[in-house]
């Protein structure tokens, strides 16, 4: 079954929407972004979040102690590193806070994926670029890489929406799909889009 992550929650009502839709993961963005939230907001939202939904913190070159504290204080369950953080960073973070790490990869060539396959992160996340832009990359690059022969699970991200989610899953067969811009209307999370994405992904696989 394909897991679902809804990223970039920044309002109280966003938490209510996901508690109704029940994706597998949600994301709190701590990086510079229109969706950025503070530790205090995340702590508050986490208390309201359904306990079966895992909270992922999204970071771009953040100070490691900030990430580790959010993990060790159980405000987030996993860290998504979206700034090209290197192996030393990932290993040291996992020493400081033994929680799952997702390494985001900007995919322009199959070699971008190949270079990430030896990571000590627990998951890869394949994206178009900076993150949260609503733009897809060429999914065929996955087929041309060594990822299909590897066992590392990966999140597919970048410009996913109700229009392309089923095609993406059929073509790429990711561990999880990750949506942010595609479940928004005028820059805010849209309850109906969230509920419909979850319904479609789950119903297709029954
Ligand atoms: O969402 C953001 O604002 C963001 C900022 C900085 C790094 C990553 C960010 N989001 C991640 O981007 C991808 C794709 O988002 P979209 O669906 O194309 O809008 C997703 O993994 C988000 O976690």
From TrEMBL:
Regions crossing the membrane: none
Annotated GO biological process: L-tryptophan biosynthetic process
A GO MF term: phosphoribosylanthranilate isomerase activity
Sequence ranges assigned to domain N-(5'phosphoribosyl) anthranilate isomerase (PRAI) in this UniProt record: 4-199
Presence of the UniProt keyword ATP-binding in the record: no
Entry keywords, A to Z: Amino-acid biosynthesis, Aromatic amino acid biosynthesis, Isomerase, Tryptophan biosynthesis
Top-level taxon in the UniProt lineage: Bacteria
Top enzyme category: isomerase
EC number annotated for this UniProt entry: 5.3.1.24
Pathway(s) of this molecule: Amino-acid biosynthesis; L-tryptophan biosynthesis; L-tryptophan from chorismate: step 3/5
Reaction(s) this enzyme catalyzes, per UniProt: N-(5-phospho-beta-D-ribosyl)anthranilate = 1-(2-carboxyphenylamino)-1-deoxy-D-ribulose 5-phosphate
Family under the similarity heading: Belongs to the TrpF family.
Name recorded for this polypeptide: N-(5'-phosphoribosyl)anthranilate isomerase
Classification lineage: Bacteria, Bacillati, Bacillota, Clostridia, Peptostreptococcales
């Amino acid at each position: 079954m394909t897991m679902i992550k809804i990223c970039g929650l920044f309002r109280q009502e966003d938490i209510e929407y996901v508690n109704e839709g029940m994706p597998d993961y949600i994301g709190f963005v701590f990086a510079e972004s229109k969706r950025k939230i503070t530790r205090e907001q995340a702590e508050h939202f986490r208390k309201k979040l359904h306990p079966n939904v895992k909270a992922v913190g999204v970071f771009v070159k953040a100070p490691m102690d900030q990430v580790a504290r959010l993990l060790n204080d159980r405000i987030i369950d996993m860290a998504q590193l979206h700034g090209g953080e290197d192996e030393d960073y990932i290993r040291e973070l996992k020493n400081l806070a033994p929680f799952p790490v997702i390494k985001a990869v900007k995919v322009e060539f199959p070699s971008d994926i190949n270079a990430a396959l030896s990571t000590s992160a627990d998951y890869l996340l394949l994206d178009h670029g900076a993150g949260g832009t609503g733009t897809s990359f060429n999914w065929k690059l996955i087929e041309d890489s060594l990822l299909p022969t590897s066992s590392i699970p990966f999140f597919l991200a970048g410009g996913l929406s109700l229009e392309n989610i089923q095609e993406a899953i059929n073509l790429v067969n990711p561990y999880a799909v990750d949506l942010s811009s595609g479940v928004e209307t005028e820059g805010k999370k849209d309850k109906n889009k969230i509920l419909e994405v979850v319904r479609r992904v789950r119903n297709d696989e029954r």
